[in-house]
């Protein structure tokens, strides 16, 4: 009797085990036929069964079903995912991740191939979304690539250099996706990871961090650290150099600004924009003003500063002879010199022949400066006047200032007709 009971128990156990495995087999058979509905039905049965729900094979099979659905264009055309989370490959990925979580050694080569297939699929979808400016979608999907690459703390795919490259690029795209979506907190974290990776970092990574810490999050300490590091790594990059200079302009550190500008010009003397900024810097030091715009005492090296400013403007004009900023700037430099000389004249009483001689000598220098300024103001005028009705506010200010200065200089030069012409042009602006 006992033997009969034992045999019956054994038979029941075998039948139950067979039934449990049969769910997985049935799912596989339906998958071969492309019957995803029934395949999912049977694999769900296996996942609910206590004896198979924690088996790697069960989760692998579910992943295979979703991955085949993802690759079936006919199926996808009729069953478009309603959300990014409904894309079949993402469900496949969750199943494969669960598989290797249950047993890292289970069918390792096969599982690696399937995981990498998911990673490449995610990368292509994320890249396409990024190109179409779907930054939130790209940010979300590209994380799949990173998550796969970092399985077992990155050890699982440590020897796969091609995958390293794809994962790094996915991280880069993800960082810029966050940045373009105005998600600056997450973007900063990702860019910080990229900058610490010698393979991943480049000037664009630092430029993004400079923008985030300089203008979005306003973190001066972090900004200075990033600027110093960027300048050290990319001393010849023009965009990095510009951002470094901008930081000194913002901080008001005139001495450091001039130093950095001079270094930049020495490396790139044909860069007209750098020369203009350097010229402005030296001019600002030669003609200092207080915070209310009132003239301050001229520095002891006034002549040296004026000469350096002049040379920088002339260098800029070699590269861009029609540049408004250079022509107007050099005209203003000569005009300010003339005004300064005129002030010196006014400070001399002129009570004797010696003092009158000084005045006459200074007058000659003043008139020379006014004369030197005229061609550059005229160039500015001739460039802006034809489009006076359509000028930007900045160019309109430059145009009006040019008219005022030319009206004055022409009057001093006894050119009444030209002075009157500038006066009429100026009145027409009111």
Taking all residues together, what is the mean pLDDT? 90
Strand content is: under 5%
Helix coverage percent of residues? over 70%
- Described by the principal axes of the CA atoms, the overall outline is elongated
Task: Describe this entry's structure for a reader.
The chain has 430 residues and is mainly alpha-helical. It has helices at residues 2-32, 36-48, 56-71, 73-78, 88-102, 108-131, 135-149, 161-180, 184-195, 203-216, 220-233, 238-251, 254-267, 272-286, 302-319, 324-346, 353-384, 393-412, 416-428. The chain has a domain at 252-318: Serine Threonine Protein Phosphatase 5, Tetratricopeptide repeat. The protein has 19 helices and no strands. Helix 6 packs antiparallel against helix 7 (135-149), helix 15 (302-319) packs antiparallel against helix 16 (324-346) and helix 17 (353-384) runs antiparallel to helix 18.
Brief digest:
With 430 residues, this protein is mostly helical. The chain has a domain at 252-318: Alpha Horseshoe (Serine Threonine Protein Phosphatase 5, Tetratricopeptide repeat).
Key structural traits:
disordered N terminus, mainly alpha, Serine Threonine Protein Phosphatase 5, Tetratricopeptide repeat, 430 residues
List the helices and strands and how they pair.
Blueprint: H1 2-32, H2 36-48, H3 56-71, H4 73-78, H5 88-102, H6 108-131, H7 135-149, H8 161-180, H9 184-195, H10 203-216, H11 220-233, H12 238-251, H13 254-267, H14 272-286, H15 302-319, H16 324-346, H17 353-384, H18 393-412, H19 416-428
Helix pairs in contact: 1-2, 1-3, 2-3, 3-5, 5-6, 6-7, 6-8, 7-8, 8-9, 9-10, 10-11, 10-12, 11-12, 12-13, 13-14, 14-15, 14-16, 15-16, 16-17, 17-18, 18-19
């Amino acid at each position: 009797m006992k033997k009969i009971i034992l045999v019956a128990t054994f038979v029941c156990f075998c039948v139950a085990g067979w039934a449990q495995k049969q769910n997985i087999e049935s799912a596989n058979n339906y998958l071969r036929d492309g019957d995803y509905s029934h395949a999912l039905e049977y694999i769900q049965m296996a996942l609910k069964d206590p004896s198979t729900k924690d088996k790697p094979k069960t989760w692998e099979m579910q992943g295979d079903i979703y991955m085949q659905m993802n690759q079936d264009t006919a199926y996808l055309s009729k069953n478009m995912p309603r959300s990014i989370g409904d894309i079949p490959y993402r469900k496949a990925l969750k199943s494969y991740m669960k598989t290797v979580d249950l047993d890292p050694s289970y069918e390792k080569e096969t599982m690696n191939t399937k995981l990498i297939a998911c990673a490449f699929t995610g990368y292509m979808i994320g890249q396409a979304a990024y190109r179409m400016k779907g930054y939130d979608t790209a940010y979300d999907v590209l994380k799949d690539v990173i998550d796969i690459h970092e399985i077992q703390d990155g050890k699982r795919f440590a020897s796969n250099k091609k995958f390293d490259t794809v994962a790094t690029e996915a991280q880069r795209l993800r960082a810029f996706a966050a940045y373009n979506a105005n998600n600056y907190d997450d973007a900063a974290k990702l860019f910080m990871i990229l900058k610490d990776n010698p393979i991943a970092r480049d000037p664009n990574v630092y430029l993004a961090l400079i923008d985030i810490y300089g203008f979005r999050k306003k973190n001066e300490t972090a900004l200075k650290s990033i600027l110093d590091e960027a300048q050290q790594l990319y001393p010849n990059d023009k965009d990095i150099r510009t951002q470094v200079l901008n930081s000194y302009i913002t901080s008001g550190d005139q001495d450091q600004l001039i130093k950095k500008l001079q270094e930049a010009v020495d490396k790139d003397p044909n860069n007209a924009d750098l020369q203009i900024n350097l010229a402005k810097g030296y001019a600002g030091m030669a003609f200092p003003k207080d915070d209310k715009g009132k003239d301050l005492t001229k520095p002891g090296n006034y002549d040296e500063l004026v000469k350096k400013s002049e040379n920088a403007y002339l260098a800029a004009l070699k590269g861009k002879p029609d540049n408004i900023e250079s022509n107007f700037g050099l005209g203003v430099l000569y005009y300010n010199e003339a005004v300064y000389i005129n002030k010196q004249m006014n400070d001399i009483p002129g009570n004797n022949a010696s003092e009158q001689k000084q005045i006459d000598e200074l007058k000659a220098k003043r008139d020379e400066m006014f004369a030197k300024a005229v061609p550059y103001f005229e160039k500015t005028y001739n460039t802006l006047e034809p489009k006076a009705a359509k000028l930007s506010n900045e160019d309109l200010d430059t145009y009006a200032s040019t008219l005022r200065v030319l009206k004055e200089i022409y009057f001093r030069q006894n050119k009444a007709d030209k002075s009157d012409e500038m006066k009429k042009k100026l009145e027409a602006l009111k």
